[in-house]
Amino acid sequence: MHSIIRPNAWVALKLPSGNTKVLQVTPNTTISLGKYGSFPTNLILGRPYHVTFELQDKRPDESFSRLHIVPADELYAEVFAEEEAADCVAPAASGSGNGHDTVISAAGGDEYSLVDDKGNVVARSDRAVLDESARQRLTQDEIEELKREGNNAGKDVIAKLLLSHTALDQKTSFSLAKYKLLKTKKYIRRFQVLPLDVATFAQWQLDERDASKILDMRAEMIGLVGCWANVHFGGHDVFLPDPNASPGQGAQACPPVDEKLLRGRWLVVDDTCGLLVAAMAERMGVLHEQGSEEGEGEESKAPSQQLPVVTKAETQAPTPAAAAAAAAAATTTTTTSTAQKDGDTEMTDAAGEPAPQPSDAQPKAKKPRPSDFMIPYSQTNTITVLHSSSQPNLSFLNYWGFDIASPNHPPHPLLNHLLTLSWLQLLQPELDSSYATPPPTASPETLASWKPSRRGNFHRKRRRFARTRYVVDSTRAGGFSGLVCASTMDPISILRHTLPLLAGGAPVAIYSPTIEPLAALADCFSVPRRTAWVGGGAPEIEGLSNEELERWPGNERFPLNPTLLQGVSIQTSRARRWQVLPGRTHPLMTERGGAEGFVFTAWRAKPAEGKVAAKGKFKRRKVEPAAGKPQDATPGVETPASG
Amino acid sequence: MASQPEPAVSPFLDPGPRTKAHSLAILQLSRDNLLPVYLQPPTGEHDGYAEGAVVNTRYGSFPHYTMLNVPWGSQIRASKVDTGSRGRKRKRDGADDTSREATAAASEKDGEGPGAVATPTQETGGGGGGGGGGAPVVKQAVADSSGFIHVLPPTPELWTTSLPHRTQVVYTPDYSYILHRIRARPGSTLIEAGAGSGSFSHAAVRAVYNGYPAAAAAAAAGGQRKGKVFSFEYHEDRYHKMKQEISDHGLDGLIQLTHRDVYNGGFLVDGKSPEADAIFLDLPAPWEALPHLSRRRPPPSLWPSGAPPPGLDDPARAWVSPLHPRKTVHLCTFSPCIEQVTRTVSAMRRLGWVDIDMVEIANRRLHASRDRVGLNLVNFDRGVNNSAKDVEEAVTRLAEIEARFREHAAKARSRAAGAGAGAGAGAGGADAAGAGDVDMDSDDETAAAAAAGDGNTAPRPAAEEEEETAAAKTDGLPPWMEGRLITRGEPEIKTHTSYLVFAALPMEWTEEDEARAAAKYPVGQEQKVIGTIDKAIRKQERREQLQKQQPGSKKARRKERDEKLGEVLG
Ligand SMILES: C[S@@+](CC[C@H](N)C(=O)[O-])C[C@H]1O[C@@H](n2cnc3c(N)ncnc32)[C@H](O)[C@@H]1O
């Protein structure tokens, strides 16, 4: 998917310390790795991901370090040496540190540097080289001393060896006092660049940032939730035709929801700042921008123009405007970095249909501007986010170039595939002003007489109305292909309002960092509760129609209609990581603790019509011979105790 | 059968709102008892039975047409089917027929008896092909009271637990993690070997699917690659079964299965590169397959036998790599034994794979239930523990017994006293004295309790139980809400499936590539520094983090502790 590091991409630098640094690779900047050194960003642009770069020593005439791609053989030199040693050494000796050939016993990857009193490195060498020269230059006694004293002693001998690699020892009198011997990790100046996809981002957030922001959601859980909710590409885009409503037409000109067209839609409750949405979008093929997915091979042949110089101050956190501007700059030659400044006023939109766009460098053929009531969302392959505040918190999507709050967004696949609405809009839309306030109307003449800003405002209101109306109405129409949650809200209350919206057979997958909320949820579907519900133990539901039962508001005895889910199950997964090295293969000694993480899964069932009556009769008849075991009376209800 | 129309889009990828004829459906008998069935239309042609195919389960009989054109997820009631002479004349048709119609083996219509045999035999793919009912039920079948099932749309998860097993398979906890890690996404090209029972293949094709290739040709101008799975299997029988499944499931064109020994034959298809960017190897010896997955011809020493397999040993023939030339390739191997891992990892290192990472997935299922402990709980469901739920209840109970005993003893005494008074002192007096003595045996106690008549001791008369049921219904919690909600694991857990070894192979980078990139992104115009781990920034970050942590951790904990202390002291 990503193979070439593109300008302005968000990437993860894997540092020698094992830490990850996430940043946006802006052309013509310098990337500092802190104490490890710094290098020009342009040296990694257009280069492949996943290779290992090594910072080289500065050339005398240059003020920066150049990079060198380390061949894989070099990465594994230590292991290969060990493997070869193990091959010729009797198995009994394996594992002990004082191998025959090894003169200087040092932990794998160590490197020694000799630093003078001004802090300049005068010599640097790794074990292999030192071993070699030790054998040539040292006396047997000295070698014995090195072996005996192991890592920390024998410093003088090592320093002497190192010095012998420089021209210094011939000229200067051998004075170790002037030099400091440092043992450094050889790979200290090596790093990798990884594409910032969902897996990498989540790991970084979990290990090095704030795990609580993503509800401690580990990779295992992201995988499980995605699979159990059956999240996948939900079909090619289908758009409603533009109703071409004139400015004089009101709400009745909005295109009605056509349930037959709606397919491959997932409903989401996301309190992970958008990580869950990102994970789903990635599975559905709408997270990464087209450009970054295909044509990498051609990338290098693309006309190489002068790159826009981004002078705006940039912060570490992804600022949407900057990202958007950067993305725009990357796709077109003109840098319109101020285009996003206007926020909600949408001055740039005010031009309306006939007025020419100010950007004369638009390479694409101009399409006629869609009318206000045109629905920009695809009917298929969509994610609908239900949020509890007035705005959804999906801030992490900024790492993938998408800003939910940006009114005039550069092209991004999520624009047509991500729908958001608040719980109020779902449950009581008439109380939501953006839904309930009718769109403004005006005759074309009146409209033409207005100032552009007022006209822009007019169109913006109408557009917003049509979109809100569509999002709310289509969501309330139900028929969703699945429900995915990672929320701090009580899952019972979430299901109460979302179960009716799910298509029959649609999977439900709910993540929770702790098991308690999920256990309480599963308890709503317990065998005894179902038995009571279908067996006439619930006087409160007598006489209710199937439709009414589907929208059962819940009470204390039956928080949810227990027949609306099938195959209820709770699980947890944990990856245990191993070290695999010759003769030293074992599980890691420590791993991340914290929340364990659990997933609740089930499928939406469509209870048979008239079930209650039939069931009751059936049970009564049945009870006598079968000695009243509820399990027998309710086949099809999962009976974990007996299964 | 060959004339049956192929579904346009696989039911795995878009099942539509309702069940369809000739399409796969998964019948859920109970949570873990799933039965895949290809629903047959009621043509009357099936096996000469007018009513068409019937699925017989321990929950009753289900004619296919009762499950046709219903919304997915529907609860289907059993039908009364006259089985007549059916059941004895079971016949085994060819593989084609059995795989199309996975009805259960023979069963009786009174399958409602829990002891009835007819557990569907999933492993055989519905071995008994005699799915037709006996007497032609042309009209609506009569609903039977024996039970119901649910009809679910196929998904890889449901398929994995219901598919006909031909080999060990990869289950959801593993494949969900693997596909996430090897970046199998819409548009990816994935190589898989061996196909085995196709469990992983189904999950893989869902992950990479972004349209059928036919549509791709039309949209070729857009240039978006269609995701595809290239699968390999050398076991002939498995290959044929899997091939049939792929087309039965409408996955032709999305999974391309090749009959091949990949150790010797490698991964090219028709001599061409699949250009894979994700690979999954579930083979006994992954290191035998790995050299084929190289970007360049590997030196002879890197082949396990010390030389390339026949056909690849001609240095004059150009090396064609099955990998995508301009993408990082992500790989996972799946091996049950640690020795396999050691060899695999060693081979990976020599072949230039990086980011080698080995993990093992432990998955557990948990069951939520009510822990119902208490002297007064009704045996509504199984598993009530009629012992004291806490010390208070125990003490109350003991005190009650004590009181009743005393009462009983007092009554006895007064009776004795009365008798004595009436008939003169004598033997009676001695009795009473004995009862009042320390030396009291258990019979007396039981008698006392029984006399007290509260019915709270373990063996209770049925009448009393009923009384209590009524009591609980009216003023107490309903029985399903009693007790503490607990979770516990399954009785048996899988502690080891396989070791997962992950690795990545970056694209090749030549001097020319570097020269081109260097020309395109010249250095020397650096404006500012990014990514500094500057002291000021770090301090700021740390301050922010501390602020964030405090309410969640230290502060909150301190507050909690203070509150507890308050409770204890107050
Ligand atoms: C454990 S099964 C794979 C199961 C599969 N991953 C699934 O989920 O259903 C291993 C399969 O690899 C096949 N196999 C073994 N060696 C092979 C080879 N050299 N080339 C192709 N297939 C091979 C076997 O026939 C077997 O079907």
UniProtKB/TrEMBL annotation, chain A:
The keyword Nucleus applies. Coiled coil: none annotated. It is found in: Nucleus. Keywords: Nucleus, tRNA processing. Pfam families: Gcd10p (PF04189). Transmembrane segments: none annotated. InterPro entries: TRM6 (IPR017423). Residues 313-375, 434-453, 614-643 are annotated as: Disordered. Residues 313-339 have a biased composition (Low complexity). The keyword Acetylation does not apply. Belongs to the TRM6/GCD10 family. PANTHER family: TRANSLATION INITIATION FACTOR EIF3-RELATED, TRNA (ADENINE(58)-N(1))-METHYLTRANSFERASE NON-CATALYTIC SUBUNIT TRM6. This is tRNA (adenine(58)-N(1))-methyltransferase non-catalytic subunit TRM6.
Automatic annotation (TrEMBL), chain B:
Transmembrane segments: none annotated. It is found in: Nucleus. Residues 147-294, 327-504 form the tRNA (adenine(58)-N(1))-methyltransferase catalytic subunit TRM61 C-terminal domain. Its EC number is 2.1.1.220. Residues 124-135, 419-431 have a biased composition (Gly residues). It comes from the Eukaryota. Gene3D superfamilies: 3.10.330.20, Vaccinia Virus protein VP39. Keywords: Coiled coil, Methyltransferase, Nucleus, S-adenosyl-L-methionine, Transferase, tRNA processing. Residues 79-137, 417-483, 538-570 are annotated as: Disordered. Residues 384-411 form a coiled coil. InterPro entries: SAM-dependent_MTases_sf, TRM61_C, tRNA_MeTrfase_Gcd14. Residues 559-570 have a biased composition (Basic and acidic residues). Its main location: nucleus. SUPFAM superfamilies: S-adenosyl-L-methionine-dependent methyltransferases. This is tRNA (adenine(58)-N(1))-methyltransferase catalytic subunit TRM61. It comes from Remersonia thermophila.
